Amino acid sequence: MQTQFTSRFAFLMVTAGAAVGLGNIWAFPFVAGQSGGSGFIAIYLVALLVLAAPAMICELVLGRMGQASPPTALARVKVENTGKGPWSLFGWSGLAVNILVLSFYAVIAGQAAYFGYYAFSEGFSSMQPSAISALDNGFKINMNLSMLWTILFLGATLTIVSLNITKGIENAGRYLMPSLFVLLIGLALYSMSIGNAKAALNFLFGMDSFSLTTGVFMAAVGQAFFTLSVGICSLMMYGAYMGKDIHLPKAVSWIVLMDLMVAIIAGLVIFPLVFASDVTPDAGPGLIFMTLPLLFAKLPAGDAVATFFFLMLTVAALTSSISMMAPVVARLEEAGLRRITGAFIVAGIAFVLSFMTILSFGPMYDYYPLEMFEATAELNMFELLREGINNIYLPLGGLAFTLLVGWGVRKENLRRGFNIEEGPLFSILHWIIKYLTPFLLLVMIAGIWL
Ligand code: PHE
Ligand code: NA
């Protein structure tokens, strides 16, 4: 594999760009809202640090050591260390799940792009609050509109993936993170000044609203994996492009920190608005679309800021959707297809699958395919898809990667893969990866079945 990121900074920004996306700004607030706030956030923090981040290190190092598309890399790493094993299966299933994630991600990203277009062409400033909260539903029930914006977003993704890694992705990554931070912090301050900051802080961090159920627990773990993109070989691909000089644990620490900050700040933008309006915290996937325009309507030059914000959000989603498409395309390339052909195939399949989401937001809102089971009785197609992937598949994928790295890779090879010195940091990390993370994940996964 020839392609490489041009610098350490580029790798960091690109990988952070892949990690930071709709998961932080769209999913984190709505899932935290549905899960009752602070209890969810407490578990989320723990899961991020002891489960998802170690699994992220493992996934990246597998890509770095394997130097190929995920299924090929997984098989190669195992053979070079301790012999054969069925690990490439997790590469194949990961590729399939990437396309499934892309299928719902593109619909939400399309909606974000549409809101940017709406802010630009119509504007939120003269709208009544009731009309604003109706905008989300208006978009969702208009299936032609959803399809159109989904196609536009998939088209943008496939274009960038076809253009090849270094040029397209690095440039987006480099400018995105800094702009996003500045913008979000500004919006959070404004939101707290015009909204109900006290209720928001209490909901997110207070003890009054602290509650834990199995459902909240699973949602928090699933969100931790999703937000770091861990479990489906998307990061593994970037691990393969990473330069040799990068200290992997240090790089991952930075990425986790950035990802966490973006999510928390997004929460501080959304919840003061929620508690100062008729929108309830458990409003679901439309939460940010029902609340953010309320803020832009009051903000001076709000429509310009709104246009810029939704544009940034779309770009943040693009840098993530690229990371879902890239590994699949890389595998198709290994099979002899041209990059552009592969990208068209993946985008086409994702578009067909996107109907599960588009229909769930529209006419099939209350169609519950797994009505016969208690746990899934009230989940529509979109919810089954999203929750099944986040809460079940991603932790499983993470478990597979930590087991493979902890038990199937020679310690010395691993140390070189991480690019770190022999010493306490490496020993602790190795212990976490070999015992702690897989043990906790196994207990959790066993718990789901019992
Ligand atoms: N981590 C991305 C986000 O938070 C989503 C993602 C998941 C990207 C899985 C790639 C793979 O938006
Ligand atoms: Na994220």
UniProtKB/TrEMBL annotation:
Q: Which residues cross the membrane?
A: 9-28, 40-62, 95-120, 145-163, 175-195, 215-239, 251-275, 304-330, 342-362, 392-410, 431-449
Alphabetically sorted, this entry's keywords are: Membrane, Transmembrane, Transmembrane helix, Transport
SUPFAM superfamilies, alphabetized: SNF-like
According to its UniProt record, what is one Pfam family this protein matches? SNF
Query: How does this chain sit within the bilayer?
Result: Multi-pass membrane protein
User: Where in or outside the cell?
Assistant: Membrane
A GO CC annotation given for this chain: membrane
| UniProt superkingdom | Bacteria
Identify the main location.
membrane
According to UniProt, the name of this protein is Sodium-dependent transporter
